[in-house]
Amino acid sequence: MALHELVYGLYERRLAARLDRSRVPHHVGIILDGNRRWARAVGEHPSEGHRRGGEKVSEVLGWCEESGVGVVTLWLLSTDNLSRPREELEPLLRIIEDVVQDLARAGRWRVHPVGALDILPPETAATLKQAGDATVGASGMVVNVAVGYGGRREIADAVRSLLQEHASRGTSIEELAEVLDVEHIADHLYTKGQPDPDLVIRTSGEQRLSGFLLWQSAHSEFWFCDAHWPDFRKVDFLRALRDYAARERRFGS
């Protein structure tokens, strides 16, 4: 074993031992960023970066599970990503389908598709729906797979669903305006019924949300990591949990 691997192993165990289990976030959102930049840095095709990123998913979910996290939201594909060149998008969609199918076959976690399935290719949408149906009875973590996801799109879809629901009841716009509050919209989000994310992690050094869980992250804590997603290590994850546990959360201020 190389010296740096030994040092990291010792550091990882030290971080894990000192983790305050009473302050572990219940819901963690993760922006899996940097697959293409990782591939470029090592001289590989972008699809190899996406493949390596896909292999990292189950490993990170295992870290979340053993740390006591209850809900994880993984942003795998944005609505903007759907405009990528076909030669890059199609392999990426196949990788995402493989990742989701592997999660469903494992049977450990409840897979919940999050996004606008109607704008995805039919085979991708079907894979996501099948994974959700197959794991609906799983007792482990809830794993939201955000594919074809955009925060603005989610809010627009929520408002549209809300209006359609009340129109079917015969409620007028004026009547709805009198009673409308934030909970009405929250009840129509893709993540309805789930707690908002306590912690949002983004890899690759970018320090922005890019539209991820815009509504739900109003009071989230953020942690940004320089490592590209395929290089994200357990020590990075444990550092994020340590940093979160040390913060004094001030909701609304």
UniProtKB/TrEMBL annotation:
Substrate binds at G34, N35, R36, R37, W38, H50, S78, T79, D80, R84, R202, R208, L209, S210. The active site is at D33, N81. Keywords: Magnesium, Metal-binding, Transferase. InterPro entries: UPP_synth-like, UPP_synth-like_CS, UPP_synth-like_sf. It is an enzyme of class 2 (transferase). Its cofactor is Mg(2+). Mg(2+) binds at D33, E221. Binds 2 magnesium ions per subunit. Its EC number is 2.5.1.-. The keyword tRNA processing does not apply. One of its GO terms (molecular function) is transferase activity. It holds the Pfam family Prenyltransf. It comes from the Bacteria. The keyword Metal-binding applies. Catalyzes the condensation of isopentenyl diphosphate (IPP) with allylic pyrophosphates generating different type of terpenoids. Belongs to the UPP synthase family. Z-FPP synthase subfamily. Homodimer. This is Isoprenyl transferase. It comes from Motilibacter deserti.
